[in-house]
Design brief:
The structure is a single chain. It is built from ten helices and 13 strands. By secondary structure, the protein is of the alpha+beta class. β9 and β10 (324-331) form a beta hairpin. α5 runs antiparallel to α6 (224-241) and α6 packs antiparallel against α7 (251-269). The longest helix is centred in the middle third of the chain and has 57 residues, at 163-219. The chain is elongated, with a radius of gyration of 29 Å. Keywords: Kinase, Membrane, Transferase, Transmembrane, Transmembrane helix. It holds the Pfam family HATPase_c. InterPro entries: Bact_2-comp_sensor_kinase (IPR050640), GAF (IPR003018), GAF-like_dom_sf (IPR029016), HATPase_C_sf (IPR036890), HATPase_dom (IPR003594), Sig_transdc_His_kin_internal (IPR010559).
Length: 420
């Protein structure tokens, strides 16, 4: 099945192809015109303008984005004017001269949109009433096709009619369409990431909420002070876990929420659950996908230690490794047959382990295939899950509105945490 990540890769390839096609035609255009500057300088200028237009168009087909992109496109094409319309033919932006001629082009634009095919018309067929020379000699209207639908048109107004100029207009429209498609795929990718977080919440909440409330209710009469503390921890845990904004968080905030989770679980399991944190202070601000560690900790408690007579030790480690942070969640519980690890890709669907497949997919999607989870396990030998997280990744930023400071001493020292 084709994933959003695959689509993004395919669209990126299409974007490169479209860019190279426009660039190649531009070089030929420069040579044909015998421009005074060197071809190399022209190509550099072309690449710079394509880069700027590309970033503007990634915002979608809006008036603001079109206003920013059309000047770069006009300079690329070295034409009289460039305009972009929406899917109804309304002009979003017109850069250059002859803008008063759009009234003569409405029917041409409508045909291009309705037929999803380029339209070429010269000045003689426009019905222009201008007395004297007109800067508009030739117009090419090319549909901007995004996901199979016409999202708008690119209008290229030229002072000289030529087949090369028509071809340049077509390739530029293809380049614009590719950038708009990449924007659509990026939105789909974000929607998928949000859906994956929702799926994790749905898996985590039922059994933990039930057990947490049972534990708290059992303490109300015997230890009301402890019950109030646990209720506060539970409230903060749910507030963080069910927040609706932000796909990323810092390691510090994720560990704080794990601390809340483990405080509640230790009230339930007592001496059967011991926790040790080994956290290097310099990696606390590393950014990672939201709710990526807590499910691994929950799996260690639920599937590793809870099934082991007498319980055991949970160890969470985060250390500096150059350009990356190495994070591991390890338990000395019952472990599992390594042959079963192939099933982790479907574990989030079967419920065998809370969100492991989901987390694996998210790490690969956000950071790349080389950042997939690494799992070490054997029967009666515990389980260790290792994550590599780059210290910097493009478009991976924490939600600055949500978060708390790490004030727990165990987070910055190698010693038992919560309760040994």
């Amino acid at each position: 099945m084709c994933t959003v990540g695959d689509l993004l890769t395919e669209r990126a390839v299409l974007g490169v192809i479209a860019t190279l096609a426009v660039l190649g035609l531009f070089v030929m255009l420069c040579r044909a015109r015998r421009v005074s500057t060197s071809v190399e300088d022209a190509v550099m200028d072309m690449l710079d303008r394509m880069s700027k237009a590309s970033s503007d168009l990634r915002a979608g087909l809006t008036q603001e984005a079109a206003d920013k992109a059309t000047p770069h496109l006009r300079e690329m094409l070295r034409c009289v004017a460039v305009a972009i319309t929406d899917e109804e033919g309304t002009v979003l932006s017109w850069d250059g001269g002859a803008n008063d001629h759009y009234e003569y082009l409405r029917d041409t634009v409508a045909r291009a949109i309705n037929n999803c095919h380029k339209e070429h018309v010269d000045h003689r067929k426009l019905g222009c009433e201008l007395q004297g020379p007109c800067s508009l000699h030739s117009v090419v209207v090319v549909p901007l096709v995004v996901e199979g639908d016409v999202a708008g048109t690119l209008i290229v107004v030229s002072g000289v009619a030529s087949k090369r100029q028509i071809r340049m207009a077509e390739e530029t429209a293809r380049f614009v369409s590719t950038q708009l498609e990449l924007e659509v795929v990026q939105k789909q990718r974000q929607a998928l990431a949000q859906a994956e977080v929702k799926a994790l919440r749905a898996q985590i909440s039922p059994h933990f909420v039930y057990n947490a409330l049972n534990t708290i209710s059992s303490l109300i009469r015997t230890d009301p002070s402890h019950a109030r503390e646990l209720l506060q921890e539970f409230a903060e845990f749910t507030r963080y876990s069910f927040r609706t904004d932000g796909l990323f968080t810092t390691l510090a905030d994720e560990l704080t929420n794990i601390h809340r989770y483990l405080t509640i679980e230790q009230a339930r399991y007592g001496a059967r659950l011991s926790v040790r944190l080994r956290i290097a202070p310099e990696v606390l601000q590393v950014v990672l996908p939201f709710l990526v560690l807590q499910p691994l900790v929950e799996n260690a408690v639920r599937h590793g230690l809870a099934k082991k007579p007498g319980g055991g030790m949970l160890t969470i480690t985060a250390e500096d490794n150059g350009s990356e942070a190495l994070i591991s969640v390890e338990d000395d519980g019952v472990g599992m047959d390594p042959d079963r690890l192939d099933d982790i890709k479907d574990a989030h669907q079967t419920g065998a382990h809370v969100g492991i497949g989901n987390i694996n997919d998210r790490m690969r999607t956000v950071f790349g295939a080389e950042y997939a989870l690494v799992v070490e396990t054997a029967p009666n030998a515990g389980t260790k899950v290792i994550l590599k997280v780059p210290k910097f990744a493009r478009n991976v930023l924490p939600n600055l509105n949500i978060g708390s400071q790490m004030t727990d001493e165990p987070m910055t020292a190698e010693q038992p945490a919560i309760r040994a």
